Structures are given as C-alpha cells and as structure tokens.
C-alpha cells in the first residue's frame, strides 16, 4: 500500500496570501489527483497529473508533479475565502484510489 | 439533480442497532465505493464493487457489510453499530477506468 503524506495538516492564512501544500510518497506514482472538499460536501476532483515534471494551472491554482513522480504540490495564488476546504491528494493505480489525509485550509477575509 | 445521492444525510442511533446507508447513482458507472472519513485520518475505503456481481473488502471492512442491488445502487450496513463507527460516510462512483471518482454528499452517522 502506498503511503501518502500531506503537509501541512492545517493551514490558516489571510485573504490575498499565497500558499503551497504538499503530497509525498516513498513510492513512484503512475499518476496523481488533487481533490477539494468543501464543508458539508463530498470531495470534487480538481486535476490529474500524469507526467513527471508536469505543471497544470487552474485559475489561481498551480499543480506540479515531481520529476521523480513521488511528490506533488498545489500552489494557490492570492487565496480567497472560497478556497477554504480540505485538499486531498490521491494516487491512481490498479486498485481503488488511495487518499492522503488532507490539508485543511482556512482563508480568513 | 445530483448524480450520486446518499440517504439518510444524518442519522443518530444507539449501540447495537442495525443501520443501513443507501447510495444511488445516475451516472451509469460500473464501479461504486464506500468510504468513511474521520478527523485526522482522511478517507478510508470500506468496500468497493466493480460491477453488480463483484464485492471487495477495503482497508477497514470489519463491522460492515455491503449489497450491490443493481448497477445504480450500493448499500452499506452496520450489523451492530458501535460508538467508534461514528463518522462521515461517503459513497463514490467511477467508470470502468476508475480514473476519477464522483462522491455523494455524505452521511453523518452518530452512534451513542
């Protein structure tokens, strides 16, 4: 079983600040997904990264897949209160997705 | 209308009671999953089903059972609920590639 470590576990920042959260493993990923879960709802897929070194942008969110395919990061520029939620990474493989424990982000207006 | 629905959305029950959580989907997906979410522990897989005749245990299946009544329906049962099964339960679906999961809104279960 691949163990996914997400850091930090909690993050509280002011509106307008930038932030980066991380997802790391001791194993190589075939591909990795990032989900966001808002309070009272289920997780929703944000992005899938497949190629080592790949960078994908989704408005103010930038996702990067490490060259060695063992880590990934999510950078948010100019955070807004609507970014508040739990950010989960998940590994895609031959078995059902394996999720990290998540980073809980709170953006204060 | 939501693609993945869960009933009930909230449930409070007592130790020893039998509880069934239901999940329905209109996405036409073959694969369905049940997870529980606890603070600090993330999403943990309980059971999953790749088609109507397929049932597989996940990471934490003890104390739970499932039934795949049809392609669109996947139920989770707690035969004799205990307090440490208090958690948020999510149903999810995916197509046969399994590359993207679609989650229901969750059921908050409290066992007293």
Outline of the structure:
Chain A is an all-beta fold. Chain A contains no helices and eleven strands. The N and C termini of chain B lie far apart (33 Å).
What does this protein structure show overall?
The complex is a heterodimer of chains A (109) and B (112). Chain A is 0% helix and 55% strand. The termini of chain A are far apart. In chain A, the strands form two sheets. In chain A, strands 2, 4, 5, 9, 10 and 11 form a six-stranded mixed β-sheet that branches. Chain A has a five-stranded antiparallel β-sheet with strand order 1-3-8-7-6, with no helix packed on it. Chain A has strands at 4-7, 10-14, 19-25, 31-37, 44-49, 55-58, 61-65, 71-76, 85-92, 98-99, 103-108. In chain A, a hairpin with a 5-residue loop joins strand 7 and strand 8. Chain A has 109 residues and is mostly beta strands. Chain A has no helices and eleven strands. The mean pLDDT of chain A is 92. With 112 residues, chain B is an all-beta fold. Helix content of chain B is 0%, strand content 54%. Chain B has strands at 4-7, 10-13, 19-25, 31-38, 42-49, 56-57, 65-70, 73-78, 87-94, 102-103, 107-111. In chain B, strands 2, 4, 5, 6, 9, 10 and 11 form a seven-stranded mixed β-sheet that branches. Chain B has a four-stranded antiparallel β-sheet with strand order 1-3-8-7, with no helix packed on it. The radius of gyration of chain B is 13 Å and the shape is globular. The A-B interface holds A 1, 9, 31, 33, 40-45, 48, 88, 92, 96-97, 99-102 and B 4, 33, 40-43, 45, 48, 58-59, 90, 92, 98-101, 103-106.
Q: How many distinct helices of chain A?
A: 0
The rounded distance between the terminal residues' Cα atoms of chain A is 40 Å
Oligomeric assembly: heterodimer
Structural class of chain B: mainly beta
Globally, the shape of chain B reads: globular
Q: Number of DSSP strands of chain B?
A: 11
Strand proportion of chain A, as a percent range, falls in over 45%
Average pLDDT of chain A: 92
Along the chain, the helix and strand elements of chain A come as EEEEEEEEEEE
Q: How many strands, what sense, and barrel or not for the largest sheet of chain A?
A: 6 strands, mixed
**Global structural class of chain A:** mainly beta
The sequence of SSEs of chain B as H and E is: EEEEEEEEEEE
In round numbers, the mean pLDDT of chain B is 94
The biggest beta sheet of chain B reads: 7 strands, mixed
Strand content of chain B: over 45%
Protein chains sharing the most extensive interface? A-B, 19 and 20 residues
- Which regions of chain A are unreliable across 5 or more consecutive residues at pLDDT < 50? none
- Rg of chain B (CA only): 13 Å
Number of β-strand runs of chain A:
11
The helical percent of chain B reads: under 10%
């Amino acid at each position: 079983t691949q163990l996914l470590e997400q850091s930090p576990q909690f993050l509280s920042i002011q509106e307008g600040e930038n932030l980066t959260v991380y997802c790391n493993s001791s194993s190589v990923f075939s591909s990795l997904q990032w989900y966001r879960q808002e309070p009272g709802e289920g997780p929703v897929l944000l992005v899938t990264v497949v190629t080592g070194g790949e960078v994908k942008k989704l408005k103010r969110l930038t996702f990067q897949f490490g060259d060695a395919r063992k880590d990934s990061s999510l950078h948010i520029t100019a955070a807004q209160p609507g970014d508040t939620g739990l950010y989960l990474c998940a590994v895609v493989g031959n078995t059902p997705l394996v999720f990290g424990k998540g980073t809980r982000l709170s953006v204060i207006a | 209308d939501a693609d993945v629905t869960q009933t009930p959305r909230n449930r409070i029950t007592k130790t020893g009671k039998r509880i069934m959580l239901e999940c329905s989907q209109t996405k036409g997906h073959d694969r369905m999953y049940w997870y529980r979410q606890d603070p600090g522990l993330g999403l943990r897989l309980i059971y999953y089903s790749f088609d109507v005749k397929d049932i597989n245990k996940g990471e934490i299946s003890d104390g739970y059972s499932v039934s795949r009544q049809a392609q669109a329906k996947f139920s989770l049962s707690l035969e004799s609920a205990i307090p440490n099964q208090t958690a948020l339960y999510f149903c999810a679906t995916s197509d046969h590639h399994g590359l993207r999961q679609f989650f229901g809104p969750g059921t908050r279960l409290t066992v007293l």
